[in-house]
Structures are given as structure tokens and as C-alpha cells.
Records
---
Amino acid sequence: MQARNARIGFMLFGVYLLLYGGFVLLNAFAPETMEATPIEGVNLAIIYGFGLIVAALVLALIYGFVCKTGDEPSDDKEAGQ
């Protein structure tokens, strides 16, 4: 079970690494792109940054949901024993 959870964690980390790498590369090699203001005068760097925060939270929720263990006894089972 731990190996499976570790594999899932590394895959989700890889997804986030790609997102973050894109952010860094855009800032380093195309800063004029990040200066664009697509929404109400808010530049793309701010939107992308908040998107990274939201993505991290979503990936953490996905990890928590997928890696739940069914091996833990519930309170109902313990009360019946």
C-alpha cells in the first residue's frame, strides 16, 4: 500500500512540477507574455500564480482521496466486537 501511495504521490508531483516549470520558463524566457492583462487588468503572472496555488490544493485533495486506506477499522466494527 505504501509503494502504491508513493507512486501516486510522485505522479502528482510530476504534474505540479510541469505546471511550475512552465511558470518559471515563461517568466525567464518570455516575461512580456506574463505582462499581458487578459482579465480586468490583472496580469497573467498573477493569474498563473494563483492557479498554481489552486492546483496544489486540488492535487493534495486528489492524493488524499485516492490514497485512503480501506484497511483501517471503522468505529462501527470496533463497537460490535
---
Amino acid sequence: MGFQSGGGKYDNRPREMHKATCADCNKECDVPFKPSGDRPVYCKDCFSKRKDGGR
């Protein structure tokens, strides 16, 4: 998964980005969805580390 759009109706308009604070490093970042507050949000770097770091 990640930040890629999959299929759907994609056009050339830029995505609406939302400010969030990374749950790992506490750095402010922009994410392509509106955080709901019930799940942690990660910056691109921490998201990649978590995805690659394994379960």
C-alpha cells in the first residue's frame, strides 16, 4: 500500500494534504488523508521503516 493511488478515478489535480504529527518521531508531516484520531499517523520515513522493518 502506501501513498500510491490504485486504479480509481485519478486525475491530474493535486491531492488535498492534511497536517499531522508522526506517532514515532513527533515530526509534523503532511498526509494525503484526514487523520481521524483513532489510529496513529506516521511520516513518510517512519512509515517506510515500519513497513520494511517487519512484523
---
Amino acid sequence: MNVVIVGTGYVGLVSGTCFAEMGMHVQCVDVDANKVARLQKGEIPIYEPGLDDMVVRNVAAGRLTFTTSLPEALTQAAVLFIAVGTPTSVDGSADLKYVLQVAKSIGENLSQYCLIVDKSTVPVGTAKLVKQTIQTELDKRGVDISFDVASNPEFLKEGDAIKDFMTPDRVVVGVDSEQAKEVLSRLYRPFLLNNFRVIFMDVASAEMTKYAANAMLATRISFMNDIANLCDKVGADINMVRKGIGSDGRIGSKFLYAGCGYGGSCFPKDVKALIKTGNEYDVPMGVLQAVELVNESQKTILFRKLQKYIALDQLKGATIALWGLSFKPNTDDMREAPSVVLANALLAAGCEVKVYDPVAMEEAHKQLGDTVYYASDIYDAVNDANALFLVTEWKEFRAPNWSVVSKAMVGNIIIDGRNIYDGKELREAGFVYEGIGVK
């Protein structure tokens, strides 16, 4: 089956490469000619473990190609996925201009039946807008060409996207015709050997499922952060609480980890978009409004914890180290990352900030410029530091040589934003330790 993916961002590139890995011929389309040229040479613009090797392998096999020409790709397409960005507008809604630009181009160039699939995260009703936009352009051309529009939202975790695509919990597909269902059934048939579920439903329900899933996960995170903050005050341990409630089969153990707030390209954007959709339909999303408020506050908790030991008026000139900059491990994505909020607060207080991240240093420079010191490794970062923050729980941060850290630092404050360290062990080693909701 010939598959076209429009957009070579995170979702588009991973999806296209994985389809090619399963033997399909995939053309990935992007308007950025420089990006396409880099991809043709095997240069990957994002960090995702295992993706670079898979791209190179499938390009060499001729199953995966890249182009800037949508009209050319469309002539061969049995199914076309729209996987362009849907950034957050000023009012919190998802900006659909790129999606609708692609739809317009499809309508201007479509010459045979094609199934158009929304892969981008889009609000309920987008498939109808895409269908209307394509049909308007077909009417202008005076041609009668059949097509369908379906919804196939992605549920990829950055850092684990290939596994998520190849062996997912489920594939959600929204269709409104038997022909669309048949095309997508054939497309995903090779994956059925792995015994995962394809769940067919109506298009609006599929669009809503994506937002509802991310909103639920974000809600669990903010709930646990609220409980962790209360644990700090009452002397409870959030890790014990997590085990206690996670053992309840009705709750489960996933996404119950307290920390310094969620970030990334999905949760913040999708929560905002669902709140906006609720407002448009006069259904206030009270729970999600609270989730968003809690998360924004949680991103400031590390800076507030530092002030327990160094008063705000004493921070000027202090040297502070940050381990981890990406919003989560195994990605270089710093969108909405708690590290950015923390670094800016420290800089505003007059601190010298030293940062280190295994893969996000280039991205950090785009966001923080030359305002911070970019360390060569974890020990360079803590040299002469008054305090150390663990912000992202990369594996290489889990078991540092604390003796070396102690000798390098001039202070002894460790603030653990992900609760990965043993507070008792660090206190016995002479450090002042602060986690989030832990003793």
C-alpha cells in the first residue's frame, strides 16, 4: 500500500518510518526543503532512540522517501496522513491553519480516490472542516472525485515512540464509511500479528479520545503533585501513598509519580485545547482548569524549596546547578519544560546557573541563549555550586559519585525534583536533601 505522510515532525516521521518498516512504500512530505534534504541524507532532526537507524535502513531499501511536492506524492497515495503541527493559539485553542492548508492543497490536486486521515492532534469537528475544505476545492475545479476523511490519533510517548507505534496498547480509528474502514483495516493488518487492538468508532469520538486520554494522564499527575505538597506539610511520604493507592485495581500504578510538573508537546497543549472546546460549547472544564493551575504552580516549587535554605535576597551571586533540561528523559524536547521556568527564576534572582543534559543542550541554547553555563558533564555542572537541582530523571543521574559531588560543591543543598534519590543516604553523606512530598 502506498502511504503519504504530510509533515515530518515527531509524529509524521515516526509514523512514516514505522509503516515503512512493515514493508509499505511511504512518502513523507514537508514544505521545508532543507529538512527534506537532510532527511534524504539520513540526518534526523529530532532525538528519538532507534529512529535514526530505522530511517537509514528504510531509505536504503527504497521503502521510505522524502519530498517537498504534495501534488506528486498524492498521485500515488492510497491513504494520506495529515501530521502537521497544531500549535496553541493565543486563546488556548488548537491552531488548524497548517491542517487546513494541507486540505486545500489536497482538494486542488486530488485525481483519484484517497483516504485522508487526521493524525495530528485536532479538536472535535476537524475532520468535518477538512472534508469541507477539500470538497470546496474540488467544486472549484468542477470535478467529482470521491474521498473519505478519517481520524487516527497518535498515542506516542517521546523517548519510546517506536515501541509505542509497533506494539501499541490500542489503535483508535474514527471512520464514517465502510470503504475508509476497509482501507485502514488493510493498512494495520500487518500489525495485528502482534495481537493489539484496532478500535473502530465514529470520527468525533476518535477525535475526543485523544484529548480525553492526555487530559486524564495530566489530571493524575497534577493530583499526585497536590497530594505530595500536602505530604510535605503533614509529614507523610508520597512514595508510600503512591504504593498504597496504586495497588487498588480501580486506580492502578501508572502516572502516580509526584514531581516538578509536566511539560512537552502534548499534555499542556491538549489540556488547553480541551478547556477551550468546553468553553465553546458552554461546558466548563472545571477539573482541567484546576489541573492546569496546579501544573503551572508546580513548575515553581523547586525554586520555592530553595528559598527554605537560601533567602531570596541572598541568592544574588549564588551558583546553582541543574541536572536535566528536557521535559522528560530520552528526548531533547524542552517545550513547557519545568527546567526553563526554574532557570529563568534563578537568573532573575541573580544566580549563576550551570546546566547539563545528555541530549538537550543544543535545544537549551535556543531557549536560554548565553545566560547560563553549559557544562560538559554532571560534575562540571556542580563545580562551585551552592545547590544542585535534579530536574529530569535521566538514567545517568541516578547513581552519581556523591563523594565527587560533595568535593566539587561549595554548598550542600540537593533538591530532587523527581524523587529518585534516597534522602537518608544523602543526609548521612552530609547533604541537605529536599524531595517533593518525601521524608
